[in-house]
Structure formats: C-alpha cells, structure tokens
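All the exercises in this workshop are built on plain-text protein records. A record pairs a protein's sequence with a compact description of its fold. Backbone structure tokens are a discrete shorthand for how the chain folds in space. Once this layout is familiar, the rest of the handout is easier to follow. As an example, a complete record with its sequence and its structure tokens follows.
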Amino acid sequence: MFTSTVTPLLDCISDQVQIRPRELWGQLLNGLEYGKTIAIQLAETADERQAINDDFHWLTKQASHDLFNSLKNRLDFPLKEIENPSVPGQMQRMKATCCLYYQTEGSKGKCYTCPRMSVKEREIRKKEIVAEVTQ
C-alpha cells in the first residue's frame, strides 16, 4: 500500500501544490496518531491496546525506508511535547508538520501545537486558550 499507492500519491500532490513531501507525510502522521488514540480507546483488552501501540511503533519507527521509496522512514518524526493549555501539567504532542490552517480565511492564527509557532507566540496563544476555558 505505501510503496505502490501512498508514496506516489503524496509525491504527486507535493509536485502539484509545491509543498515538500515531508510536510504531507507529517499530516498523514497526525491523522494516524489520531486514529491510534481512538483505536486504543475502543480496544477492549490490554492485549489489543498493546498490539495497536506495537503496530504504530513499527510503522513509524521500524518500517524499512524501502517501504516509502526513500532513504528513511517518512513517518519517523521526532516526538516534541508541549504543555496542554486546557489541562495544566499534562503534556501533548506538537504536530509533526504545520497544517497551514493559519492561512485560511477566518483563522485566528496558527494552531497551538504548530511547529512553526515560536515560544513567545505559543505563550500568548496559551493565555488565550486558558481565558476561553475559564469563561
């Protein structure tokens, strides 16, 4: 699936819209992480949860670069965590790549988990989120 379908599709989209393939792979990873979270919540046993985690780890860390027609595993992004503004003390993953939502009409700016956001911008956004939650 990845070698014959996903990789050529993302490479083609990248060529057509002038976005680096890495940015698209990061968006795919964001979706896969969301799916993993839901699957774990729906799993009925510890063995099922472990299998989901093992499969996700294999795909994102251990799968051969050949699967992606690349020199490296295209889903292997570093894990960067930031504090969850809605739940103090809890950490959440920063997105692997920017989704470019901030460029759409009506957006309030970059997402709190955007890797393109500076530390100062994130602190300002965090204060806005905390203010919204406490209202």
